[in-house]
Amino acid sequence: MLRVRDLHISTPSKTLLRLPAIDFQPGRVHAIIGESGSGKSLLLLALMGLLAPELKLEATAMGTSSEDWLNLEWRQWQQKRGKELGMVFQEPMTALNPQMKCGKQLLEAYRVHQPETSLEAAREHCMAKLERAGLAGLAPRVMDSYPHELSGGQRQRVVIAMACMHDPAWVLADEPTTALDSFSRQAVMSDLQRMCQEQGSGLIWVSHELDIVPQLADDISVLRKGELLVTGSVQEVLNSPDPHSYVQELLAALPKGSMKPSRKEELVLDIQNLSKSYRKGTQVLPVLKNLSIQVYRGETLVILGKSGSGKSTIAKILTGLESLDSGRIDYKGKPLPTKGPTGIQMVFQDPYASLNPQVDNWYALAEILALHHGGKAGDYRRQAKEAMRQVQLPESLWSARPSQMSGGQRQRLCIARALMSEPEVLVLDEAVAALDPLVQASVLDLLKALQQRTGMVYVFITHDQAVARSMGHSIVYLEEGEVRPYS
Amino acid sequence: MKSLGFFLAVMMGLLAIVFSLFQALPSADQLLTGQRSDAATTQAIVADLGLDQPLPTQFLLYANDLSPISVYSNQADKTAYLSGIAIPMGSVSLWLKWPYLRKSFVNQQPVARLLLEALLGTAVLALSAMVIALLLGVPMGVLAALKKGTWIDHALTAGSALGISVPSFFSAMVISWLFGFVYSQQTGLSMTGSLYELDSLGESLHLRLDHLILPAIALGVRPLAVFVQLTRNTLVDVLSQDYVRLARAKGLTEAQVVWRHALPNALNPLVTSIGGWFSSLLAGSFFTEYIFQWKGLGKVTIDALQQSDLPVIMGAVLFTACVFFLMHSLTERLYVWMDPRLRGQDK
């Protein structure tokens, strides 16, 4: 058993994580749940002995019953890491060295603890691990590839194979599937769980995906703002008569249910035989193939697809950021104008990157009207105030800047900004993907309420199937630039 | 192929600009003939150099001299100086030749030979300065990054900030004066001197590597300081990357983490910077060469400017542009070779 008692991680000025007691049982899956900034990742780093040196760690106990980890020397940690402790990171893109072939990185992970093994045997071992990690049949190719030549799911499986290289007692996974689309998410996660089970590793799994946690985890701990709220088996925590309200809140925030099909009265967007391809050198890469979609007033069209399926290209074409190769788009019965205000606005994925950090909130809103109707931004304070009220931003944020707001507040501001010019179509490109579950739920609710009031059309682009079902009046599943049946 | 076309376009543009700029210089015939020459002599020289022709014709003639594929009349005296193959075509010949940069107004030497001789001095100096800067700068930067936040880091960062901000003519003068004059007894070095020097009898040239020491240090100071900061900053950035954490999580030692995973990924910006610095040093380090009286491109160019030696100036400018272009495309190749993500994107 891995015990942690009275763990306290802090900077000189601030406590980041406080854990009275957590027990991790060997061979079981222990999920740690909490929103971003709740200290989940710090716990994992502490268990790996990899906390940044400027952070202070205090505890009365950390380690197994036979060994205390608190006073390990760096060299002793080195012996443990990779051998008894394997780690899977959140972002498979950045977790692998971009300049080294995957095979070399895997071999390195094996031979650091098995230096006497022959290269040939080590290679065999790595390939076997890759096969087990869900890359059956692909292992030789993966060994010979650079990380950028693999898909996100494949990369994450390489990292998993690496973490499981020496059948460690514990595998620590820091949101291993957050960066993947919802299609590979489940597959990667169940492969990781199966692998840990086969080799008898305990899995400590940091996650915020409450939709798959109950199926895969045995135990759950919930963190919030650096405090441990509750820890115990899945049944205890989720089904007990008096569970912590935060857990219930998280469960309730899961996108659920589905929309009824709308009445389809007034056709707003009519996309006919749309095709688009990009040129890469002499190659022509088709992105969208002969796409036809109709959207009616008051309706949300969800475009669902994995990364690289061409979803974002549709958004760019609708907002005039890209031109189309062939086909036509009619907007309210007329061809979509290529210049000037079209009545179609866009909300981007990353609210932080799409706001100017130097601009006050009210000005970011008012300047849109000044642009459309002339005059100075100052003339439109009343409208800006109204817009902030509409997206439920408090008046205290009137002259705040993006850095002073939370992620959810920023995305609300982006929505308000898109609404300033009173569009009839709002294109939302992964607009809630970067938000925590609770925040995500509140933004989705806001969008639904706005739609009911104004009858706006949403073109909602997402890779999350649950979000897609809960938002879409109609769902289009896109794969390799084509509409495919989705069940 | 594309870069070759680009190169030619840049060279043509540069040629046009430089050519028209130097029309503002005092007319060459006065410079060449001195005070005591009669009108007939002046006339002859002017005609010989083509200076009596209209400007566009002069420009075309110069371009013709430069171009590796060119046309000359069979009577032209110039053909004596060309090195290449002539293919006779009636009264004219088609030449495949090295670019001909004409002769210096001042000493009648072919410009190409002047520049190549000077290039040797400059290249040796630049290379030495770069070696000093790299051998000291990169390890110091690595050290600062690994000891981030300690006094070592602060000292190295502050020192390199000083090195970057001191102008090269100032550091050159201080170094020359201190080690070549004040402490010359101890160092055994002199304030000025070139790579080759005539012996006391004035008969044969001697290689004087000791003359290299001070100018190489003076020239190396700024790139050294830049490399320290650049290495430190990129490495600090790379060390915070996930793959470095993963490397540690595998159980690698710190040395393995730094050498195998961090450093190779920190090299790209450094290579860009090395390429840039090396080409600017190769173009001639005007102040340093001048102060140490080091015979190199920079000194040749300054001398030529003072004497309004138009062909030498033109040649030096074009030559410098060539060096920059070559170094730049070399750096780009190196980049692609180093980073697997860039490979295969080029085609």
Could you explain the architecture of this structure?
Chain A has 487 residues and is an alpha/beta fold. Chain A has helices at residues 40-48, 74-80, 92-95, 102-111, 119-135, 139-143, 152-163, 182-199, 213-216, 234-239, 245-253, 311-318, 361-373, 381-390, 407-419, 437-454, 465-471; strands at 2-10, 15-24, 29-33, 56-58, 61-64, 85-88, 170-174, 202-207, 219-224, 227-233, 267-280, 283-296, 300-305, 326-331, 334-335, 344-347, 425-429, 457-462, 474-479, 482-484. In chain A, a hairpin with a 2-residue loop joins β19 (474-479) and β20. The longest helix of chain A has 18 residues, at 182-199. Chain B has 347 residues and is mainly α. Chain B has 14 helices and five strands. Chain B has helices at 2-21, 28-33, 39-49, 55-66, 111-146, 151-165, 168-182, 184-187, 210-239, 242-249, 254-282, 286-291, 297-306, 310-338; strands spanning 69-73, 84-89, 92-97, 196-198, 205-207. In chain B, a hairpin with a 6-residue loop joins β4 (196-198) and β5. In chain B, α5 (111-146) crosses α13 (297-306) and α10 runs antiparallel to α11. Chain B starts with a helix and ends in a 9-residue tail after the last helix. The mean pLDDT of chain B is 81.
Q: Could you give a quick summary of the protein structure above?
A:
Chain A is of the alpha/beta class and 487 residues long. Chain A has 17 helices and 20 strands.
Largest sheet of chain A, in brief, is: 6 strands, mixed
Number of helices of chain B: 14
Arithmetic mean pLDDT of chain B: 81
User: How much of the residues of chain B is beta strand, in percent?
Assistant: 5-15%
Roughly what percent helix of chain A? 25-40%
Report the span from N to C terminus of chain B. 12 Å
Instruction: Trace the largest sheet of chain A across and list its strands.
Output: 6-7-8-3-9-10
Low-confidence stretches of chain B: none
Give the tally of β-strands of chain B.
Answer: 5
Task: Give the DSSP E fraction of chain A (strand runs of 2 or more residues).
Answer: 25-35%
Radius of gyration of chain A, in angstroms, nearest whole number: 25 Å
For the sheet with most strands of chain B, the description reads: 3 strands, antiparallel
The protein's oligomeric status is heterodimer
Poorly predicted regions of chain A are none
Mean pLDDT of chain A: 87
Largest interface: A-B, 34 and 24 residues
Number of strands of chain A: 20
Dominant shape of chain A: globular
Strand arrangement, largest sheet of chain B?
1-3-2
| Rg of chain B (CA only) | 25 Å
